[in-house]
């Protein structure tokens, strides 16, 4: 290293020469001018000085020395591997070595740091433990002190009480002595001495150490001997420290609040003990100190319950609830059905759990829905409980029993009349006339609303008219089992005579076994011919009285009112003959005539009371609905409070809209009403599933069981009048001692809805001879589970009914319709004749099965298929929803709209 001048060095370092000289002087090196040479040693010395002055105490040489040195070595060698004898293979082998040398002082330093950290941690944990232990100790001490003080307080209180007692006795004794000494003038003093605060403090009763008031200086309450009570008042909980009274030197007495605090602290302490790491601290709390002592507990709870015995369970620290150790299996009584919520309640589980269990079983039910018995049993078992059958004595039986018990004397009741007849013969006009002239009389405002029924008062009594003209309404009500009508008024226009619906009305009335009165209407017309009407009706076994029959014929005019009174008289006479009677005083029962949902008033039902008296406020079961009669209105819209037999009223207050034809009954309590309604709801749902109509087999089954003669009702429809009559005659003749064959309707044409409802009402079997049921009839047949049979050979019909009548279980030949195709278009081809472009609308059409061509539900041809094609191909069968071309053998008169029915004959063994 070459020597440089100070000036050069200053230049290199970038500092002024003077400053460098001054620094050199401070470092102890004397330089006079800037041109002097500075050696390397001097430069190092200067550097060391500068480092020192800037805080780096370590010598430069030492600092620069590395803390550790790593040595690496790599050797490469070759190894020749012999592979067989021929030639070897050379492999390069590289060995790498690495060694690190660490300065001893560094290692020692690190070790020192580690030990210091350990030491610090140890001290920290020690202090934590110590602090926790201290806290526990303090808490225990406080607790002990609190208890000691409480005991001392109790002792002092007892002591004070004893002292007070002694003092009182002493004073009494002294007063008695004084009184004895001066009986006249000292008496008042003696009587007032005991409670008077003017009495000087007695040394006999030293103030108890603990008593809070004793520590209160007299100055705070004012001077005077009266300010200081002679006996300590009992310690008060609300003795707050807000007086800032100086505390005496002795430890301050603990008030109950403080004691509670102390107890709380102890409690905290106990928690700490559980969390704490040292189990040996637990011994301090041995002896039940963590909890209230039995004595203290007794005191605490007796304070809460000052009268009576203290609750033992609370004193002993046990509560009344015992945790069940095994699942509780409950017996759940289930009737025909049960509401999900009730089921949950019976099992003491959440409703949602039951819903969940049902859901898992694939039953979607809400909490308010009813589940049937079987489903409920499955759920109960699923949830680990036991299902038992509910008492067979259901609500309905209770209801019937109560109603029977209520039976009283029967009185004459007004007749209920339904008006029937052919369209435009004047039913509405007649009803209107009667309503206008009879009801309005005397009733302010007259009829203001249509309620479906109304009553008129005539000279011979009250008559109730059902304002539901139409045969369907009549029959559908009867089908539900409601016998509303006592008399049918058959309106026949004198100028028109007997028409199809007139005959139908006669059939319905006959089937319902209701007497008929014929109103020969439109007698004001010049072309009126009442004899024609009579003749027409005689053919249907409606014979006028004057011709030796039992039916009253009343000529009238709904337009002029002529003969209307005579009609009302005729009704009254008929009613007398019928001897209509009902109990007046008693529970009301009857039938719903009409029902609807009113926006403002809720469900509104027009009911006809049939027995008893319905009163406002009665509870009702009405079909599957229930409720309380909130209000009742008559046909004039006037509020009424009661309605007797045969009187129609509008009722508000039901839970829902009942069906027309539903019966109602009043019950004494709502609970029963609700139960009955719910049970009925369940039963109605069930009965929809179980078809309950009388089938031929059922009749035979009943017959074989013996008993009286069975009636087999039949509805016979045929394609032509001749067949219908022949069938009716032949079938009626089959009546024997076992079975009475009763053809209630026989007619021409397809089976209509009216036929089906009539069959349902009379539990009749429908026989279709070369005719079919239309869509609406099929619906009624399906819903009511009616027995419908199609025939095409008269002999088959007779044979089947004969077998039934004779109770034989023979073979039955049934025609099964396997498919129906609707004709959409007809093409004429020179080769095949008429080809019907069809759409199969039901089942299959098969080429080798017999077919029938139907027009208006009547068979017009029976035969075979010539060909069955899909597009150009001949196929064996075509299924529902597909189009096809059908050519019928030897029949070319197929028209669009016709139906081609494909069927087969099967022989079945009849069974019960
Ligand atoms: P419904 O279909 O059976 O209810 O018959 P309506 O009561 O509607 O009557 C049909 C038509 O016959 C109406 O135009 C009435 O005015 C008329 N009409 C009803 N009764 C009489 C009557 O006694 N004399 C006359 N001349 N016309 C009547």
From TrEMBL:
Domain of life, per the record? Bacteria
Annotated positions binding GTP? 421-428, 467-471, 521-524
Q: Which UniProt keywords apply?
A: Coiled coil, Cytoplasm, GTP-binding, Initiation factor, Nucleotide-binding, Protein biosynthesis
Q: Where is this region: Disordered?
A: 124-284, 296-319
Q: Which GO terms describe its molecular function?
A: translation initiation factor activity
Q: Where is the composition biased (Pro residues)?
A: 197-210
**Basic and acidic residues bias locations:** 124-151, 164-184
Instruction: Return the Low complexity bias intervals.
Output: 152-163, 187-196, 211-222
Query: Pfam families this protein is in?
Result: EF-G_D2, GTP_EFTU, GTP_EFTU_D2, IF-2, IF2_assoc, IF2_N
Q: Where is this region: G-domain?
A: 415-563
- Location of this chain's protein in the cell: Cytoplasm
As recorded in UniProt, coiled-coil segments are: 717-744
- The chain positions of domain Tr-type G read 412-579
Summary of the function given for this chain in its UniProt record:
One of the essential components for the initiation of protein synthesis. Protects formylmethionyl-tRNA from spontaneous hydrolysis and promotes its binding to the 30S ribosomal subunits. Also involved in the hydrolysis of GTP during the formation of the 70S ribosomal complex.
Similarity field: Belongs to the TRAFAC class translation factor GTPase superfamily. Classic translation factor GTPase family. IF-2 subfamily.
> What is this protein's record name?
Translation initiation factor IF-2
Origin organism is Tahibacter amnicola
Gene encoding the protein: infB
């Amino acid at each position: 290293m070459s020597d440089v001048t100070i000036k050069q060095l200053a230049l290199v370092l970038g500092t002024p020469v003077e400053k460098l000289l001054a620094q050199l002087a401070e470092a102890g090196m004397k330089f006079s001018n800037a041109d002097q040479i500075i050696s390397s040693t001097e430069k190092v010395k200067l550097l060391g000085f500068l480092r020192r002055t800037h805080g780096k105490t370590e010598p430069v040489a030492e600092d620069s020395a590395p803390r550790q040195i790593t040595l690496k070595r790599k050797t490469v060698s070759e190894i020749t591997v012999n592979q067989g004898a021929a030639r070897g293979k050379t492999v390069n082998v590289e060995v790498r070595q690495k060694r690190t040398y660490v300065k001893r002082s560094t290692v020692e330093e690190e070790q020192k740091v580690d030990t210091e950290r350990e030491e610090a941690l140890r001290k920290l944990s020690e202090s934590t433990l110590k602090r926790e232990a201290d806290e526990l100790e303090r808490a225990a001490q406080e607790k002990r002190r609190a208890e000691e003080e409480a005991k001392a307080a109790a002792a002092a209180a007892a002591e004070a009480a004893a002292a007070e007692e002694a003092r009182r006795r002493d004073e009494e004794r002294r007063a008695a002595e004084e009184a004895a000494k001066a009986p006249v003038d000292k008496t008042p003093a003696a009587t007032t001495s005991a409670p008077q605060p003017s009495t000087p403090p007695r040394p006999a009763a030293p103030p108890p150490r603990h008593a809070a008031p004793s520590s209160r200086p007299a100055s705070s309450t004012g001077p005077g001997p009266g300010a200081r009570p002679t006996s300590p008042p009992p310690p008060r909980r609300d003795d707050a420290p807000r007086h800032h009274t100086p505390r005496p030197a002795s430890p301050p007495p603990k008030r109950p609040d403080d004691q509670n605090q102390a107890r709380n602290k102890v409690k905290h302490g106990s928690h700490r003990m559980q969390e704490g790491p040292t189990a040996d601290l637990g011994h301090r709390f041995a002896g039940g100190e963590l909890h209230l002592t039995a004595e203290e507990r007794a005191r605490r709870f007796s304070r809460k319950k000052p009268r009576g015995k203290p609750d033992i369970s609370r004193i002993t620290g046990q509560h009344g609830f015992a945790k069940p150790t095994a699942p509780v299996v409950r017996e759940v009584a289930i009737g025909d059905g049960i509401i999900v919520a009730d089921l949950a309640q019976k099992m003491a589980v959440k409703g949602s759990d039951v819903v969940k269990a049902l859901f898992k079983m694939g039953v979607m039910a809400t909490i308010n829905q009813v589940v049937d018995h079987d489903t409920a049993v499955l759920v109960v078992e699923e949830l680990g409980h036991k299902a038992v059958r509910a008492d067979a004595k259901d609500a309905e039986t209770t209801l019937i029993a109560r109603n029977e018990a209520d039976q009283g004397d029967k009185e004459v009741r007004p007749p209920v009349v339904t008006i029937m007849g052919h369209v435009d013969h004047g039913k509405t006009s007649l009803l209107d006339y009667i309503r206008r002239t009879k009801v309005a009389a005397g009733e302010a405002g007259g009829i203001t609303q249509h309620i479906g029924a109304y009553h008129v008062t005539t000279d011979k009594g009250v008559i109730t008219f059902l304002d539901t003209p139409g045969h369907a309404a009549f029959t559908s009500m009867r089908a539900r089992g409601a016998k509303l009508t006592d008399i049918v008024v058959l309106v026949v226009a004198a100028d028109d005579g007997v028409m199809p619906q007139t005959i139908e009305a006669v059939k319905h009335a006959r089937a319902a076994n209701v007497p008929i009165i014929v109103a020969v209407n439109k007698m004001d017309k010049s072309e009126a011919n009442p004899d024609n009407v009579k003749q027409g009706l005689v053919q249907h076994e409606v014979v006028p009285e004057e011709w030796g029959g039992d039916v009253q014929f009343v000529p009238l005019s709904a337009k002029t009112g002529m003969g209307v009174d005579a009609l009302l008289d005729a009704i009254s006479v008929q009613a007398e003959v019928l001897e209509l009677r009902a109990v007046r005083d008693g529970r009301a029962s009857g039938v719903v005539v009409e029902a609807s949902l009113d926006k403002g008033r809720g469900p509104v039902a027009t009911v006809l009371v049939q027995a008893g008296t319905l009163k406002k406020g009665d509870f009702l079961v009405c079909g599957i609905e229930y409720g309380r009669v909130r209000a009742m209105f008559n046909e004039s819209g006037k509020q009424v409070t009661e309605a007797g037999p045969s009187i129609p009223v509008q009722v508000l207050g039901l839970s829902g809209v009942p069906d027309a034809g539903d019966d109602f009954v009043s019950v004494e309590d709502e609970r029963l009403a609700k139960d009955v309604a719910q049970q009925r709801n369940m039963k109605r749902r069930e009965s929809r599933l179980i078809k309950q109509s009388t089938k031929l087999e059922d009749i035979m089954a009943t017959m074989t069981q013996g008993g009286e003669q069975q009636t087999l009702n039949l509805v016979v429809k045929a394609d032509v009048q001749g067949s219908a009559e022949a069938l009716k005659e032949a079938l009626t003749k089959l009546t024997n001692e076992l079975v009475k064959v009763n053809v209630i309707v026989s007619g021409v044409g397809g089976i209509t809805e009216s036929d089906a409802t009539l069959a349902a009402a009379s539990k009749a079997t429908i026989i279709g001879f070369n005719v079919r049921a239309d869509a609406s009839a099929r619906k009624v047949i399906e819903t009511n589970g009616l027995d419908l049979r199609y025939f095409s050979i008269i002999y088959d019909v007779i044979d089947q009914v004969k077998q039934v009548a004779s109770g034989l279980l023979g073979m039955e030949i049934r025609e099964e319709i396997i498919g129906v195709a609707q004709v959409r278009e007809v093409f004429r081809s020179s080769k095949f004749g008429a080809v019907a472009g069809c759409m199969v609308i039901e089942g299959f059409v098969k080429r080798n099965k017999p077919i029938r061509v139907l027009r208006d539900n009547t068979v017009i041809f029976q035969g075979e298929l010539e060909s069955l094609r899909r597009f150009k191909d001949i196929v064996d069968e075509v299924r529902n929803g597909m189009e096809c071309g059908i050519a019928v053998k030897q029949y070319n008169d197929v028209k669009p709209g016709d139906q081609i029915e494909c069927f087969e004959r099967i022989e079945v063994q009849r069974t019960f």
